[in-house]
Amino acid sequence: MTSQPAHAAVESVVRMESARLIAGLARMTGDVGLAEELAQDAVVAALEQWPTAGVPRNAGAWLMTVAKRRAVDLFRRTELLRSKYAVIGRELQAAGEGVEVDFDGAFSQDIDDDLLRLVFITCHPVLSPPARVALTLRMLGGLSTAEIARAYLVPEPTIAQRIVRAKKTLAQADVGFAAPGPDERADRLSAVLEVLYLIFNEGYSATAGSDWMRPELCADAVRLARMLAALMPVEAEVHGLLALLELQSSRAAARVRPSGEPILLLEQNRARWDRLLINRGLAALARSVELGGAEGFYSLQAAIAACHARAVRAEDTDWARIARLYEVLARVRPSPVIELNRAVAVSMAAGPQAGLELVDALAADPALRRYHLLPAVQGDLLTKLGRFSEAQAAFRRAAELTANARERELSLARAEQALAEQAVAEQAVATQILGRQAQAGPGAG
């Protein structure tokens, strides 16, 4: 195997397995920072060995086994945590000397609990809310500091500093890996919901890379949201988030062509939307409303997703209701991104000019200065208004700002389409002029 495919295999496995790997190691060592270091050591070992030995059939188990052995070496070397050394040593002995351990069979009983526990640990109140979210996204979601920075529209160094400080704070506070009790869960719930929401969003529309979606992140977020709803059944916003994730997940199969190209919402084949997930989402939304959460941040977004889910055809969508829901959402949690989404809904309900006026007003907001969806929306509305030259420039600006290859290709394709439509419009005008001149006769002019 050449070095390049091996590195690609490592990257793929790390994306899929990093959260489980870190969560399992954190449970065993009781130290989140150490767990991440051990996981990184295992990745380095993979980079050293896979190019010549080949990628193991069960790569996730290989990483876990190597990380455990590194932990044993560390504990033996430092003569600390003898009890944990014994536990890990027994597990290794049971697993055998080979690295082809059945990861799912050997460790799956605690995987989901470990993941959820890791979310609550990294959302510990000893950390500031921004630090909790940044650390959890980094560890559980496998997001890079650049991806987290884009999600929050803040500079990358700021996120990097938050993560470093958060790890130090957890270590200094000697935070263990024990599951928090009911009162502690309630205190951390807001941060936990936000983390699951952002992990899902990264999976649903990846901020960087060559893929439009990262399905493994969506799956993890949905699974954890379902567990959280079972753990905290009377929390309205838990059900609101679950409803949102189920409804958004229902579109996954229709969002990407076999070639990997993205398919925008209004162009999707709605027959491919998953009705089971839609029904689950609608049921969770009804439960949230029943618990008094109709105007919760996640429940409102779920209500918007429900408007799309209930429309058999794109033209059946109740855009006026969606615009009203976004208006309420903007009051609940003011955000320029929410206002941008509201502008899109207004354009669909009242026409592109009404939407463009709102979007142009948002262009001055510093938080959106490098947000690629702002010029993308501008380009779409300018195209509908027949302002093709301006639309082309807007789409090219959107392509420059995004770090996702698929999204960049889409924006550039829409820029070319705007250029083509401009040529068609100019040809139509020229034809009309020639037609009028012909009707006027040779003496005209």
From TrEMBL:
Membrane listed as a keyword: no
Superkingdom classification of source: Bacteria
Pfam families: DUF6596, Sigma70_r2, Sigma70_r4_2
Domain DUF6596: 188-288
Residue ranges of domain RNA polymerase sigma factor 70 region 4 type in the record: 120-170
Keywords in alphabetical order: DNA-binding, Sigma factor, Transcription, Transcription regulation
Chain ranges of the RNA polymerase sigma-70 region domain: 19-78
Keyword DNA-binding on entry: yes
Family: Belongs to the sigma-70 factor family. ECF subfamily.
NCBIfam families: sigma70-ECF
Protein name: RNA polymerase sigma factor
